[in-house]
Amino acid sequence: MDNLQFQEGVVDKIDGWLNRFTSLRTMDILRYQEESQIDGSILEIGIFCGKYFSVLARSAQRTRSRLVGVDTFQWVPESRVKESLALSPETRSVDVSLLKKTSSECSSNELLGVLRDKARFISVDGSHEFEDVYLDLALSEQILSAKGIIAVDDFLNPITLGVNEAVHKYFAQPRNVLPVAYISNKLFLAHRSIARKYSLFIEESIVADQTEPESRTFRDSLAKGRHFVEQLLWGHQIVVS
User: Fold this and answer.
1) Residue 178 φ then ψ, to 5°
2) Do residues 222 and 195 lie in contact, with contact meaning Cβ atoms separated by under 8 Å?
């Protein structure tokens, strides 16, 4: 099934909080990795019922990549996540491992052992507390592949200010990753060796989309001037939608 069919037939049926536009653009990013033959495992910190996890699982199954989820499962049991993955033939056979613990209990060596190789896509969506998010970012940087990308959830969300504080502190010093895009509640960071390519691709995917109102708004804004769709963040131009 295509992205819209997967969104409506699978993702929309799973409990959780995920902007539809962000979900579809994530599918585009994962497709870019697949078509560019960017190898690596996939990791999500904070799964809940598996809404975003299902998007990641689809790409992992397509490429026979290892998928790992870290969660305390204090709100929903692990079985609920497995039920979410079982909703579609595109996700039910994925090579997945669920770790029942906090991310702060995981070392980079432990995660790399479970992932089996460095991650091409990491979703940071666990605790919203400053110290936890900061540690998750530092951990993600250590295990990210040289062509990988990180999605940080709830950046600029006024009810999760700890995320904002952590990301700002994280970028107070030079990093191996750079911000490339902000899409409806998620900040995307990419390894500096490929950051510009991701930024260009994300913009192209938004412009090319003909179904979502956010894409139409983006095209209208772009026609008025680049400063309406591109902003400077920590010294780097990022796409904003």
Assistant:
1) -130, 150
2) no
Provide the residue range defining the domain that includes 53: 3-240
pTM beyond cutoff 0.85 = yes
Q: Which CATH number goes with the domain that contains 12?
A: 3.40.50.150
- pLDDT by residue (tens digit) across 73-128? 999 999 999 999 999 999 999 999 999 999 999 999 999 999 999 999 999 999 99
Q: How many domains does the chain have?
A: 1
